[in-house]
Amino acid sequence: MAHMMQNSMVQLNQHQQMHFSDQNIPSVNQMQHQQQQQTHPMQNMQVNSNFLQPSVPQNQVMPANTNQNLPPPGTIPLNTLIEFVVHKTYHDITVMADLLPSKTDMERKIAIVQFTTRTRQLFIRLLSLVKWASSVGKVVKCSEISSFLDRQAMLFVDTADKMHILANQVVVQARLPNFSVPAAVDVLTTGTYPRLPNCIRDRIIPPDPILPKEKKATLKRIEQIILFRLVTEIIPPQINELKVEKGVVHLHVPGEFKASITLMGDGADVPWRLLKLDFLVEDREVGNGKALVHSIQVNYIHELVQSRLVANDKPLVDLFNILHFFCLSLKLEVLQAQADRLMKLRWGKFIQIDEYQAGQKLTLSYWRVNPYKKQTKPFSIVIRQSATKPSNPLQVIHIPKVPLDDVSLVESASTINHLSLELLINQSICIRSYHILIQLKEMLHKHIRNDPSYFAGKSNGQSSVLLIPLLEPYKEKDCLSIHVDPQTGAFIPSLDKAEQSLLDKIEKEINENQLSILTWISTLRCMALKDRCRNFVQHLPVVCLDRLPFANNQTHPISEFGENHMYIKIARYPMYYIVVVMVFDVNRPTRFTNKYYLLQTSTTPPVKSEINLENDSRSSELFAVGLVQLDTKLTDFNMDFEQPPNKRKKLTSCEALDENARELLHITSLCSARIPFVSLMEKLRDAGIEHQGAQDEGPDVGIICKIVTLPNVKGVSSEVNALLQDAVLQCSFRLQERLNKFWSVELLMKAPPLKPVTPRHQSESMQVTFHYEIGLNLNSPGGSNPVESFLADWGAVARLYGPYYLFCEQLKHPACTLRNDTQLYAFNYKSITIKYGKPPTFFVTITWSPEKKYQLHFGRCDNAASSNAHCLTRHYLNETFKINPDISKLMHVLLDTSAPLQAIAQLPSTPLIGVSTKLNVADQVFSVIAQTPTHVRITFLSTYCIDVYFRSDGLVAIRDGSFSQFDYAKIKHHFVPIPGLTTFLARFKDPKDVRHRSDMEKDNPPSPAPAPPGTLTSDTYGLQDIKYSAWSGASCTLLPHNALEMMCSPGMIQNRRNHNQSFTPCALEQFLGTTMVRRNLDRCIKGASSDITIIPVDGADGSLASSFATRSLQFICKPHPQTFQQLVLKIQPVQIGQQIESWNPDDLVYLEEYFNMRVSCSPYRFNAMKSFFTMICAPARILKDFIQLMRMELSGARGSGPNAKWSMNIGLTSPPRVSIAPFGMPSVLIKDKILLFVQLTQILPPTTQASPQIIVIPFLHEPQKPTVNILPQALQGNTAIHHVLQQVDELLNRIPDVRENWFSNAVRLIIDNFVIQAS
Question: Which residue intervals define the domain Mediator of RNA polymerase II transcription subunit 14 C-terminal in the entry (predicted)?
Fold first, then answer.
């Protein structure tokens, strides 16, 4: 910009010297010199410069003491000098920051180097001066003395001069003023001087401002003077905007300048005063919106113009000429800078500045390089000032002249008021591009009939584009666009979705020879049609291909189609293709018609003798086999490639909004629907199944293939095959689609011989449907074959129909007894469902599959009270039916076993943990394991085993399953004989069983655990020997079904308080549970210390009783003599030496009751018995304390008192909430110390819905000490439970020492007083 402004100033200087040489106007060089001095005031500064000497006015005397603070004459302070240097450097940097962005890179580098060199030299001088100044003390002192003497001499001279002036000039004319008598009187009388001279007021006090009204009148008067003056002045016509406002005239020339002038008086000779000057020339492309004229230059021009306004006959004309010439020169400079920038950035070598005369003319050429033509004549644009009328704006001349195809474009390209060279170039290129495209369109119109090409884009001020439609209806994406490259003037083609390599080839050929575009239009028209076909079917499961590499392409009729065809591959059927052949109209090339063919391919040659597949590599290539033309004008077609062409049926047509799209979609969808039937008919033909071919059922219904006859099923009797063939009324294949396509085979069958009871099976015919998925490849060997799948299902129908037909014939026989207890519920040729029972509340469904053969599925009806128990024996029933598929025999077995199995199914199967000595092992209460369809084995807690055999006479046979079936002297491993089993079963025994009753001794075989040494051995087969005897439990006991139901059904108890029902264990569980408890008791007695005395029991039931004595009590435990479902514990005191321990009879009653309610009950844990046995074996005073706790537990809330806050339970086994002992361990230990676990449950009001809190307290007592404490290990922790136990321990520490009932007193104190405190 600096170079631009300097050139403009040079042109302005020349213009002034040319037109105003008679005036004394400073030249531009002088102006630049002044500008440099103003811009850089310290460039030539010296330390002892004379212009820094202070000057004293002639009429002022310098005081004598001022020389103390002033520097010597001809010197400057060092700090002031450094400050000047810094300011100068900063000013230079600021100027460079404004000017460098608009310069080229090389110019910027040169300016930076020059600035660096100049500044470096300046600071080197300053550094030398600073170093010198540090050692010039004497010189400075002498200089100060010399300066002082000079100042004194100057003062003497000045004093002499002033005295001479006073003597010769001032005193001669001096006169005394009149004496101020009033002032003297004031001073003498009042002592004050109130009368000051008026000169003080006039010089110090400012005058009053004028009023707004006066100001308004003054401005109005000035405007009148200005208007009068303007009437007499000559105003250039280019100043079309002139406005007088507030005493100022605003002159505005758009795009050049804006000036404000006024008059300083009302005289006719008063010159115009220039107040403000603004230049409106802007360059927003190169100058980034910054001002083009520097403020210093504006000030200089301001002074220049002001000098021309003084003593001039035509001041306003001179003002316009100066500013107008400067603005035109500046515009040319701007355009030249824009051209340089365009050549360096966007346009490069494609434009060139041919000539530039500063302030006169700029010549620019474009379209200089054309890659497809060796010699090209460039086009030029000339921008210059008018030679005849200098006051006119810049002129634009085009070489050669632009064609007048569009007058509006020509007018816009003939001016450059916008001051944008690139816009002017684009407008010129638009005009010439439009002219070239018109010539191309005329050529197309000459060679193409009904040429549909048209222009687009010109109306929006953009470059013109010639659109050549390829297809009808006309769509912009199907048009070939031709536009002209603005840089080279070459044709540029573009087409939607076309590859760039293809467009480059078209561009090269049409620029070298325009007639080649005719050939390319035909090629692109075919490509566009193919692309349109792809868009039509893009949402269908198809793949479009331009060509296929057929091995027999030369010999197949498909070779006659030429290049204007494409293939549509149906994704689901990859061996079939739709061939689309395009035929264009000669008279109107954008119109076309399509012909469609269906092509069948294969990976093997159609004639095997033509090619030797063993030695030819083409064995893996694709071969074209069948070709069928599809005529959409007919209604139907049958794609049978073996029929002659004249007998083939053809496609139907449908009405279409877009005829071509609807036609192609119709062809594609119809082929997709028909091709599966082609493969189906081939497979039916290979399987030897006769059919009627693919037929259309009607509009919008579908296609069907009907089967004439079905084949006989191998492995089925001829009678059943004949019956099935006679039962089939119709068989048809249909293709259906929901989420995926699948085959639907419908069999219309006659009503079965015996109609089911369901209403939907009461019609005279029955429809059977099968569904099969369609594979991806119809012809691949590994694909799904619907014919094979159907034949497999047809075989299943035949194998089900045989047993079904036999069962129907058996039901018709008069001697059949199944009619009352069975019902044929459903038969649909795929399954048989039969209800059975008394009444029929259960059903069995029979199916058949090639993999699993016959399968039985059991269920229950809605009115059944429980699930079908035959699920327990389903496996054995299934295997038996596979061997002999006789439904009648199956139903007899189901009826005979239904009632006992339903009774057995009621037994609980809940798993319990801690029943045995293995604490982490869960044992089911009852486990029912089927052995055969009529034999099940029932185990109880993995200890006892019972075999149940179902008989056909309404009875069941029950025996002890622990005994071997072949040798009663051997028992099975892991099982224990059940003592008293025969005696227990005798209560439910069938009166018909007349076998003698065995005595009690033979009903109590020895158990493997308590058997005496020498009586128990084991062999390699897992059998153990016991003492041989005719054990009654090894023999079967016959029971009726109702007895088994009574034995296995749980009891029900009605609660009188809340009327809720609770269930009690069944009789069998109670019997086996009491037997388990007595066995646990015997194990505890055998493992006890020598303090226990075993006492034999006499009597008939002595073999089933256990009797022993402790230090002071005798215990007898035996089954209840009537029910055998409960253990009875009898306790009586015994004498120890000469002393008999005194016992309260109520305490013994509570001890017996506690055994019945807490020990001899489910879950029959061994460790619970062990804890109880530990308590009763304790010393009498400790046992009495335990009995008090038992009394409190059995009494419940009513025994705890009205103020009780907790209820308690003795923990016989360690609960899961205590981390100091494993779950299920004995919780009562008596050694040197006594450990006891007590569980406390919070008592809440009945209306409270919150859950009560539960606390497990491990008590520890030392018999030698009269206190009870908490186990120390339970107090170690920081959880909520530990905090509660710590609070309990604090409460126990308050108990006074007692001598007996330590535990009961401690528990009583806790349940009455303990309240959990918040942590």
Answer: 1177-1315
What is the structure's pLDDT at 149? Answer: 93
Cβ distance 343 to 305 under 8 Å? no
Please state, in angstroms and rounded to a whole number, the distance separating the CA atoms of residues 989 and 987: 6
Q: Give dist(CA 542, CA 364) in Å, integer.
A: 58
Largest CA distance in the chain: 185
Tell me the backbone φ, ψ of residue 1178, rounded to 5 degrees: -75, 165
> What is d(CA 427, CA 412) in angstroms, rounded to the nearest whole number?
7
CA atoms within 13 A on the CB side of 339: 22
Question: ∠ CA 1218-1220-1222 to the nearest 5 degrees?
Answer: 75
The answer for residues whose C-beta is within 8 angstroms of residue 878's C-beta and 6 or more apart is 854, 855, 856
Q: How far apart are the C-alpha atoms of 418 and 786, rounded to whole Å?
A: 80
E-strand stretches of 914-1015? 922-924, 926-932, 935-940, 944-950, 955-960, 970-972
Place of tokens 């919008």: 700
Structure tokens at 938: 């029932």
State the Cα–Cα distance between residues 962 and 229, nearest whole angstrom. Answer: 143
Three-state secondary structure call for residue 211: coil
pLDDT tens digits for 332-377? 998 998 898 888 888 888 888 999 988 889 999 998 888 888 767 8
The mean predicted confidence, pLDDT, of the chain is 81
Which stretches of 37-134 are assigned E, i.e. beta strand? none
pLDDT confidence band for 890 (50 / 70 / 90): very high
Residue 691 to residue 731: CA distance in whole angstroms: 9
Residues 1257-1280 as b or e (16 or more Cβ within 10 Å = b): bbbbbeeeeeebbbbeebeeeeee
How many whole angstroms separate alpha carbon 951 and alpha carbon 972?
25
User: Looking at the whole model, is its pTM more than 0.85?
Assistant: no
Question: How far is the C-alpha of 877 from the C-alpha of 856, rounded, in Å?
Answer: 8
Burial of 1022 (0-12, 13-18, 19+ CB in 10 A): exposed
**Between 311 and 818, whose confidence is greater?**
818
To the nearest whole percent, how much of the chain has pLDDT over 70?
84
Place 560 in a pLDDT band, splitting at 50, 70 and 90: confident
The count of residues in the chain is: 1319
Q: Which residue has the tokens 């009444």?
A: 839
SS3 467: strand
Higher pLDDT, 28 or 314: 314
**Which of these, 636, 672, 666, lies nearest to 654 by C-alpha position?**
666
Tell me the pLDDT band of 21, cut-offs 50, 70 and 90.
Answer: very low
Instruction: Tell me: pLDDT of 778 over 70.
Output: no
The torsion angles phi and psi of 240, rounded to 5 degrees, stand at -90, -5
Strand partners, 958: 948, 1037
- Please say whether the beta carbons of 97 and 55 come within 8 A: no
Closest CA to 735 of 662, 681, 812: 681
The rounded distance, in Å, linking the Cα atoms of 1105 and 1129 is 10
Residue type at 1264 in one-letter notation: Q
- Tokens 């959409």 belong to residue: 632
Return the DSSP state at 170.
Answer: I
